[in-house]
Design goal:
Blueprint: E1 5-12, E2 15-22, E3 25-30, E4 34-40, H1 50-55, E5 68-72, H2 78-86, E6 91-96, H3 99-109, E7 117-121, H4 124-130, E8 135-140, E9 143-144, E10 147-148, H5 155-163, E11 165-175, H6 180-193, E12 196-201, E13 208-213, H7 219-223, H8 226-236, H9 240-250, H10 265-274
Parallel strand pairs: 5-6, 5-8, 6-7, 8-11
Antiparallel strand pairs: 1-2, 2-3, 3-4, 9-10, 11-13, 12-13
Helix pairs in contact: 8-10
Length: 275
Amino acid sequence: MSTSRLLYRHTDNGFLIEVIEEAGTRSLYFSGQHLQSSQRLENPSKLLLPYTWYMMAFPLARRDDPKRALMIGVGAGSMARFLRQHVLDCQIDAVDISPTILSVAQDFFGLHGDDFLHIHCQDGGEFLRQSAPLYDLILLDAFDGDGMAEALYCPPFFNQVKAHLNEDGIFCCNLWSNKATRRRGLFQQLRHSFADTIFLPVPERGNTISLSAISAMFWRETCTDLERLAGLSDRFGLDFFTMAEVALRHNGGKDRLADSPIGSPVGFWRRLLRG
């Protein structure tokens, strides 16, 4: 019978941060209840939380690997490690406003910078105001004790993001709130701020992941290309078939993978990988 161990507890400006280990998994919790990140000790680069799988859905809308990425909100660093492992030549800026969170990520989750991963303790908006690069991928996953960080999940910040995206760049947001009006407002703001936006509700979770761009995205073509979906699933170890189904179902796509004459997408993927 497994038992949990409290490895760390600290209150930072009224914001409770805890690290708990159980059954070979180490997890970061905010405010005593919100699970922010989990790491399998024997495989630290594996993404365990469903919302993080969908944060990595950007290949649905982008043909090439990102060469430069920005992460705002580091948490335990699971997505930074995943991107570092799977997109080897990508220069990553990982930004978090909290020195406490960054210390926890380093001391308890083994997140360390290198020649490709650059970690910054700074407000995300201030970082963009002082930063010149254009990015192929910008990920926003920044929460405080009250939910989504107000200064970042808003039109002025979205305009900053637009100014720092390449023409085919993707802006990916983790949208979560227990207030329906807050969620609906953000959906509208993202649609208004960007030329193209789609939403991916994470199955059986309260998170919705958005993908936005300053020009039209080609996500429908990818979502109906079973061979490409199989390749992405194999490469990243994620279920891109289900992500594609979710994208088509919730964004006006008429095509359905299940209607393919090849059969079920999962069955096709397994047959393809077996050769």
